[in-house]
Structure prediction request, 343 residues.
Amino acid sequence: MPVRRQHRLSEASLPGYLAQCGLIEPGEPVSVEALGDGNINWVRRFRTASGSRVVKQARPALERFPEYRAPTDRIAYEARYTEVAARFDHEGICPQILFFDPDECVLVLEDLGDAERLDAALARGADVSRAAASIAAFLGRVHSGTRGVDLAARFANDEMRRLHGDHIFRLPYRPNDFPLSPALARRAREIQADAKLVAQIDAVYARYLEPHGALVHGDVQAANVMIASTGPKLLDAEIAHVGDPAFDVGQLLAHLLLPAIARGQPAPGQRVAEVAWIAYLSAAGSSGAESFAAAAVHAGIELMRRTLGAARVPAVERDDAGQAVVDAGLRLVQNPPTSPRQL
Ligand SMILES: Nc1ncnc2c1ncn2[C@@H]1O[C@H](COP(=O)(O)OP(=O)(O)O)[C@@H](O)[C@H]1O
Ligand SMILES: [Mg+2]
Prediction:
């Protein structure tokens, strides 16, 4: 079958496209604004007299790193995650999808405005307990409600799952040319030489790739959470898959812990992680709950890759911050606590 080329939307072509899809009237005035960091997808806000909405187009080459390519059907998995999760989404955690075009790989979403992102709130030391608890409880409901449900064929998002998995579990533990300071590069080499640790992380990766467990969002990082006036929102489910629920929870815990560890004052991070874990457990019910230790191992792996991997976070720019985050990550992986009290 011939592959039809995608029409790449641009600021100039967007109004025509929206009119063709019946989303605006032909000739209706529309203005277009940049939005977000422009890392992976083409994301813009558009405004008409009747209000604003957000448009997201998935393209073969990533926006900021065009040398990296990713399958464009990732946007269909994002739409499908929102659809399946809707049953468990009493609080409106997923932004509403107003329109989906599978041919052009376009989603039109409700506009959450310029709500603060969770990473920004954490960076300024804000108390994010309520937002963290709501996101954790949502994940708990989705995990327990989809556990053992036969969704794997609908979420055969294998390429995205593996691309992302390689960056988390593999590349930081193999020789690489990530731009690290000399001290952190030395630390990375020490870790890569620890055969027992690398084997342990390889085993966690193998479990991550197994298509059973529950419906997993797959990218619960602080940059994908917005704290809107109507409550927290979890964006960007383009890596959704059926797999290990501990992965989602562990990623959330890692992002709650990281800025406080990097500042050298871990206590507030530990408190919010505990709040999130309690909310997750009570929403999931005992049958749906992951063990804290399994989530802690994932949290540890995420802390290390955000310091030693390609997607470093700004909080670890200084070496002392980076070393503290790696220390904490190693401890979680090698000696995982069984309760958040032991974090
Ligand atoms: N519905 C929305 N309302 C307001 N801002 C949004 C919305 N969706 C995305 N954004 C902004 O755009 C950024 C990128 O969107 P996201 O869905 O995470 O795509 P990407 O895969 O490119 O990271 C977000 O971090 C957020 O700042
Ligand atoms: Mg994102």
